[in-house]
Amino acid sequence: MSSWNPENDVDLLSGSEDEEEVSMKRDFHGREAILFVVDANLQTAGVERLLEALNIIRTAFVSGMLVNDKDLIGLIFANTKHSPPPLEASALDNIVMPDNCAVFLPLRQLTKPIVEHYLEFMGGVETQFADVYGLAEPDGCGRFDLMIRLCIEMLEKCGKKLNNAKIAYLTDVSTPHPSSSNHFQAALQKASDLEGKEFEFHVIPMVDDFDYEPFYKEFITLSRAIELDAFQVPDAQMLREILADRKLKQDFLRRCLGHFSFYLGPNLSMSVQYYNYFQRRAYPRKVQILRRDNSVVRTKRVITVQKQKDDGSQDIEHEYQIKVTDGWYTCSVGGKDLRISTELMNRVRNLHKPQMMLLGFKHRSSMPEVSYSKPSNFMYPDDQSIIGSKRLFRALWERCLTRDKIAICLFMCKRKSMPRYVALVPVEAPDNGEEKSYRSLLCGDGFKIVYLPEAKHIRHIDMQDWNNTENTAEDKKVEFFKKVIKKLRVDYQPNLINDPSLDALQANLLALSLDFSTDTKGLDNLLDTSQLDKRIEKLLPDYEMFAAEAEPPKKRAAKSASTGESAPKMAKIDDEHLKEYDFVKGLIKDKALTSCTATQLQFILQHHFDVTMPKSSTKAKMVAKIEELQN
Amino acid sequence: MASNKECLIIVLDVRTCAAEEVKLKSAKCVAEILKDKIVCDRKDYVSFVLVGSDTNEKKTDAASHPHVVPFGDPRLCSWQLLLDFFQFVNKTACEEGEWLNGLQAALDLQQTAASFRVARRRILLLFDFNDFPQDYEKFNEITDELLTENIELIVGTHNIAYVDNAETSQPQSIFNFSRKCGPDELKNQKHVLSLVPRCNATLCSFKEALHTVFKVTNRRPWVWNAKLSIGSKISISLQGIIAMKNQTPVKLVKVWAEKDEIVIRETRHFIKGTEVTPLPENLITGYMLGGTPVPYDEAVLESKDPHPPGLHFFGFIKRNAVPDEYFCGESLYLLVHQKQNQSAAVKLDALVRALVCSDRAILCWKIFSTKFNRPQMVVLLPRLADDTHPATLYMLEVSYTSQHHFWDFPALRTAKTECSKEQLDAIDQLIDSTDLECTLRDTQQPRPWAQNDLLPFDALPSIFEQNVMDVLERKVIHNNNKDDVALKDKNFTDVFWRVPEPLEEKSKRAAATVKKLFSLRYSRAWQEKLLAKEQAANGVTVKPEPAQKELPMPSDGMGLIEPCSDFKRVLASVCSLTNATERDARFQGLAADTRVVIITLLERKKHNIEQLGEIITLYRQSCIDFNTFLEYDKFAEELKKITLARNCSRFWQDVMVAKQLGPLVLGELTLDDELTLKAYYTIENWAENEAAEMEDIEM
Asked: A250 and B471: CB-CB below 8 Å?
């Protein structure tokens, strides 16, 4: 049995502040599901467009398998002529199949065979799609409302509890039906069904100049219960890119970390919610597997407390199991141990109410240039529990924005967390079209919650040992580095850089199970300096002007035992010598008996004086006895 | 290992002539210092000196300094020391006492502490410099000693105010001249003020004194040695120092069991809930790829050579290219050149200045060590050298794109959230009246706090730690058994949840105006919806009522005479079973009996419509509770067959159709469900002899 280090046990004191932890736990209440719907109209503009959509789904499948192994994924084709059944035809037994729709994959947790089946299908798409699925006749318009009904039914009857269900519709047609038709109205009405069932609907335009106006703007705002003028037109290309990562712009209503009240004064509060900008690094789930049949072995740590009987036997008086969170803290007061139960610590944590309170305002420039305590969050109003919050929030946000103010608040995000001082920095969604960078994905209108470091988190360092008037470099040396900088400039794009260890692991896993070879550059490639060297080749001779770095003298190493300096002062007494009475006499004469161990003293008493003293005798007593017997 | 412990001697004024405020605040101040050192498990040495003690009752060591009583040799902090201090400070006091004598005694104690080899020696003097004469004969001698011995002096008292120094615009402490001072008081104050230039003493208010004691600068911090390499040729030796870390210093000892008990920790293995004891060599680690476990032998698949530790350059990016929203990790590092490495210092200075000039930052891979070898993307932000710092780089970890969320927030500026001018004015008023800095900057009046800011960024308290300390203090003082008393003290929390006092009134008024202008209404609908959802989710499996005692199974099962009450009785007993499997099995038995009874009753010549209705309704309901939908659906079909065969149209209409006892439907009715049900209930080709059947029915 492997054992583990008690240091690793959950400690209430340091833990529990992590919101991620809580939101991760929430996921146990149900699985995430994402249902892809591919519009068969994509084939009309040439099979490439369809292939592009299928490729996005392929990467989403693969990244889905690698990251969130429990998620359910499904795939439907809409506006098809034929409705061939999926491989697992019985999955549709309880589902009413409308015309012009075809289920390729009912909602399933992805496995190796499913992905293989999909890859096989993709291989033949070019030649077979038109025959097998075709396009709805005459105009490629299947009933949109029936398609949505099918999606809802599939999500509801998937057999698993869902926590977060999304429908991603990949299309290039900006309206499913002519705006005057009855079908158009019927389609719009389905939006409220989605809202009621809390299923998210996303349209992923496969063309860049996609017009949301005729249909989707209204449909989406209805399905999310937001106002029509609050709709922000997303960038189509960006949507496709992030979908390949199996991500969608997340619905703000359902995925927040928590709701709380923000008090601007006594009796004046608004309801708000907060979000994180990124999640904990998600590695594939590590498991223990039995070699013989690949079955997954779950491990559980068990702490057992045992009391053995006092009588010296190995019998156990009592034994019980405890949880990692059991036990108590102790502190000693005048020799007595004071017991502090974890319950008391929990109550200390619960002294404060989860809320946010305004303490005052400062100018934006008063924020230290670089200060970091923990990742920031984002705050957005929530008009549900206090109606009118959104307007008050907007007023505060707008005034802070125009006047360059930040609000300083005390914030307790949820029960048992730590109250923290935060600065609310107003941020604004960039104007559409103006900036098409990753930053436009970063934020909408709202406040950024910046956690301020507590006084004790800041370490004050006296730099006098580093300060030296000769530290300052001459201007030509600065010029050298300016040239180097010019040569080695890069544009930061978050999606250019991936976690290399995760990449390597995923590539290995895919190679192992699906025989994929991914073209990930290993870190060794990333650390390869030859490219860099080449770009600054011409500058390098100038580098000579810097003096070679002399390693400062090493600190004196700890004294090793072999030099004898830390060796024990008194030589150990050898048991063999004790058998000689003369040696023992010498010890007695030199008053050196105290350097013997208790066992050795017992041995002397038995061997030379034939006396046995009780085991509990102290060394002093035994020495006295020996001396007495000698005399 | 560089030791970072200090020896702190606190000199307290206990003279009867000293203001009560000073005495109370000093004792509180000392308690806070001790609590902090205990809870954070610091290995500092502390002792106290009282000035103004009635030394007549204790004549031993009073000879050198009259009315001055030292506590004893400096010692480590413990709760016992805190309790002892509370007793010590309440010794009988007298009128007289000289603070310089107190300092002298503190210096003596520092001498005895020299053997502890502490890194820092400090004296905290908490004194009321009031209108009582003091002897300043030894003033120069003592201040010189402080200076030569490099002992830091912090002086705290109550009537301190701050103004901004005209030259440095740094806050400077002065005595508050709001009231008339006597000649002796002026003389005392003059000497105290001259402590600042004479021996670099810090003169401050009590609150600031506490900050100053806690704010320790470290000359020999822990460093992470690393080389920043740009390409293969350029490299700079750096040292990383933690500048900020989100970490609580509270250290409490965790205990798992009584002293005479043994704690055994082991890992157990389960396959689908069944415990197994595999040999370690039969287990292999792997990863879940969707639903498929993939064995993964790290030793074989991953390269064995660790990556070289250090900072590996990736590129120069625009300084603000990485948004601070993407910063992750727990700490902020400051990178400085390797100590005593002059060449590295010059290179770093050149690099930092070049970076600032071209408004760039560095993106690079951080590999902490060969042991912690996982590479992490970091951004290095330049910081120019100044009087206190050489040129440095801040190092922050950056999250990867696969972690990022993309939210879809609707715009805030919509017609619905449009605000009127009064509303915006009210918000402006709120901002102005709760301004933490501007109102102070305009005036040159002395202020009671040091910085030009009511909530300075570098002095935010750690609330949780303060709560832990206070609760523990209460527990220690009340000897362990009054958890509730300690926790009910609202002061523990209320002190933090309030606007700084000088702004309180103004901000309250402004908030009231805002409240008047914005209509805000609580809505319970949302919570109710959530609650209903939760209940629905939990309701199926968990019955709200507590588990009842198991009822004995009635020996007589279902009979034909009173089937309904029989059924209820047996069902109650079945429901009371706690073993789920047994309960289901018993229900199966009961259901089978019931079906036989119902069919028997139905096959009788005369139908008791009421009874049949009741028993079928009961059975149908129990099928919902026990989740045996299919069984009932089959039974419903059987009933229909019997009805058709025996032509019991009365039974069909009055029982099955009227009470809607058809097949069970899960959840909301869909169109298809409705069609199926309709088909079930409709029987079109009844046999002719309705009249004959009428006679069969017992009314």
From this structure: no
